[in-house]
Amino acid sequence: MRVLGVDPGLTRCGVGVVEGVAGRPLTMIGVGVVRTPADADLGRRLVAVEQGIEQWLDEHRPEYVAVERVFSQHNVRTVMGTAQASAVAILCASRRGIPVALHTPSEVKAAVTGSGRADKAQVGAMVTRLLRLAAPPRPADAADALALAICHIWRAPAQNRLQQAVALHTRSVPKGHPA
Length: 179
Description:
alpha/beta; 5 strands; 5 helices; single chain
């Protein structure tokens, strides 16, 4: 499974591609950051994020895209930019028919470090270890994108089994009958 992880942001949008399957060593295919100038107008910044993500999709041909789910923050301006960049990533993948999964920051931290409250340094250290890298990817947005891809590779098989079980159960319960 090849997954493009996207840590959305308007100034720095982390991107990372990981390949592998749960239970086996994973391989980093690529990692980077799509940057936009903070003084550019919003439309230009969103186009730059789109162009960057499209380039990563063209170059790496992922089977899935994992995007950090936007969560409520105290700084509304920051969360708006994050949400807008997230929507661009979802749109780019969906336009190509690539399935998109959203993972919360605490879900990603728990999957990669074992603790949903891990800090950025812990996430970077575990990404470095799991992907057998010489040093943590910089900036942290790049490491976070790889962590999103790792999380999806590890969680997708279980999520798929759950979805299949729910679908099977839904088909077997007669209409109007409580499930």
